Amino acid sequence: MTPAQIADAVKRMARFGSPGNNADQAALDILTWLNFRRYEVWRAHDWEWSLDAISLSVGPSSYEKTFPATAGEIDSLGIQGTSDVVVRYSRRQYLKWQKRPNASDAGDLVGYIPIGRDSSGNLRVRFFAAPSETKTVEGWAKKRISKLTTSDWSTDLVYFPEEMQDVLFKFVLADAYKQNNDLRADQELRGAYASLRTLKGEELSEADLDPQSPLPDYMIHKARRRGAGTTVV
Question: Domains of the chain: which residue ranges?
């Protein structure tokens, strides 16, 4: 679906502007609403279809890194070849870590903190502690979306899969109803948020949760000898 197709359908259903005319004020309003709603849906969840694999080299003197221009938000990071997860910390936690007794900027790579953006708006982070040898940090980041302009009327909304595009349509239709003081606006908006929650729930039902490790054999045998159930320690 293209922005022009969304605009024409909204115009017909809401009787707002002239279908087929992408230059009238109604079309420009719809494009503005579509941009707002795209960002809202983007922020609502770390959608599986929005993730890109990333890989960065972190070393003793290169522990402040700039992410690729396509990365809009960091999802999860780990160290290649290990089961170690690189955790995001707050800047306050980082300052406390720096002030601990015998603190050193070198050591095991355990986490990172956001340190703003570069002049091009790309995400920047500081990894800590700086490893003694170069490590490859890999994981996923949410792909960034850009603002649609009038030159994008005929461009497919390829970032959003088809099952998400009807949600965007419902949001924009609600905006058009509201602009017209149409009593259907609130109902359409509630339907849009309900659809968004449904899609989010479908992903969360198969969430990539940390699995619980099975108890070591010796713990199971010990519990059986005592005639007791499993003990959580």
Answer: 3-46+145-204, 48-143
